[in-house]
Amino acid sequence: xxxxxxxxxxxxxxxxxxxxxxxTLIIFxxxxxxxxxLGGLVFNEGVNWLIKNVxxxxxxxxxxxxxxxxxxxxxxxxxxxxxxxxxxxxxFLYLRMHQTNNARFLDxxxxxxxxxxxxxxxxxxxxxxxxxxxHTWSQVLYGGVAGSxxxxxxxxxxxxxxxxxxxxxxxxxxxxxxxxxxxxLIPNILWFEYTVTRAxxxxxxxxLGTKLQ
Length: 213
What we know:
By secondary structure, this protein is mainly α. 74% of the residues lie in helices and 0% in strands.
């Protein structure tokens, strides 16, 4: 009968939905930066597991959750995951993606709105871990700090180390076979795909109209 608890329980499934979304996006887009983003999330989970098994701080109510895969709770993996995702997305929106058309106001507006939504979801998921008695406030706080630091470090690593290598990786035979592509030189892939698709559709429409005449 606890509606708030049920809602927060569903929100705590956010990491699962994000992973499924990434796998789906990679299958259909096959873009190297997206693959790197997912690699960062996986690496972040590995770091969380390592920290937990070094600190070995128990959860607040171990007996209340028999299905939990690990008895250690410092730091919260949900909090670390969500803050990694949110901070990395924030950096990507403001430092990697640049608008190429004249809609400057709308461009900034949707970035601000999306950033607020990302932070809100991260806060709610973090809070849900305390509300549902999976973690203490300190475990959630340190998880958020660890995830944020990991996101900044991985973004810098991707931009400075991996991105210059992406053209070479995309040219590998195996990358060409799986249609893996590099879009790092395109400032806004959404705008680019929209304009290219619209131009190609118009071109094909003109060709079709010529054939029918």
